[in-house]
Amino acid sequence: MPQQNHCTALLLLAASCLFLDSSSAWTTTTSSISAPRHGQRLPSSAISASSVTTTDASSSSSSSPWFTSSIDTNTNENTSVEKLKIQLLQLGAALDRGQAYNPTSGAYYEENMNVARAKIGQLLDIAAPAPAPAPSVDDNTMAAATTSTVPKSLEEMDGEWELVLSTVPHGIFRSSPFFLAIQESYEYAETKTFEDGTVKSDLFFKLHELQTCSWGASKVGRIAQHIDAKSDPKYLYSTFDTSLFSLTVIPILGWFKLLPTFGGCVVTAATCKELTPDVFDNRSVARLDMVVDYTTSRKVDGLDGLPLLGDIIWKIKVPVGAIWKLLPWNKGREATCKVYVNYVDQDLRIVQDVDGEYFVYTRPVVPRKLVIL
Asked: Are 364 and 354 in contact (CB under 8 A)?
């Protein structure tokens, strides 16, 4: 009996402590309201205009030296460029390199993508001002109107670059010369749009994305480019990792994988011409002209290849360039494509496709050696 009374006393003491603690949480003053504890709800009667403090979303980043949502007006070239580069890396991470915004799915993240475009444009405006009229060209060297951030030769871009951000809709794999050539091939069509105004190339990429990525059947991993400016002819090797059936279960009913995961690295090789000075989107740029040669694949460590084919799949080389000419709608034309190089420094490269969409690359933190057979 004494033990029971002791337990009862302890319970009463604990209850009184909880009551005192909770009652103090509801205590308000005319200047502020204490934050409710976890699991507690603030009575609506306690909220007043004089006691509620609201937080502006922009104010949380206004004191940051690197991250701001507004377009900066800093006139210090070095500081502004470095700051914008950091912001582009953050936007690339937040937007999953641009895949998070998909107009097919909806308009969510559209504002984030618009900010990314504005940040890229601001960086280019600071680093590469508008060109002088009709720049002259002599022996494949850039005209005096260009700036130091516009490359003068392909050797300035030699080596490996990894994609960190793209504004292109319907698939960031469109940085590959193969898909760039498909995009530009529609320029030779009798009509470039449908009756409702839909651009034919956009519809192609939208349908391609729906067919390959629906239900999580295919996922795009690392995307990179290897530029070999020292070979003859010069080559650009575009690579992107893809995995098939990464997550395959029966919703609710099953918690185990139904199908094995497999995939690899798709490699598209394109010959390159030396850079040509040009003007695009009212900026001095370097135009990189390419011709798709072939497509092959390489094994990715930790990822199995296609079942039943074994290592044979890594030795197959598809002569895309030769096949392209034989297709009747191409009328013997080569698989040509081009990009406009806006900016290159030691660690960042920005290019645009013919539609003006951006691709932002950096030197890789974890480089990957590309073996060409």
From this structure: no
Q: Which helix (H) or strand (E) holds 338?
A: strand 336-344
Give the pLDDT confidence of 336-352 residue by residue, as tens digits: 999 999 999 999 999 99
Query: Over the stretch 282-299, which tens digit does the pLDDT of each residue have?
Result: 999 999 999 999 999 888
What type of residue sits at position 333? R
CA distance 306 to 309: 6
19 three-class SS: helix
Can you give the residue ranges of every domain in the chain? 66-362
CA geometry: angle 257, 258, 259, nearest 5 deg? 95
List helix spans (H) across 32-104: 59-62, 77-94
What does pTM read for this prediction? 0.72
Contact 177, 268 (CB under 8 A): yes
What distance in Å separates the CA atoms of residue 339 and residue 351, rounded to the nearest whole number? 6
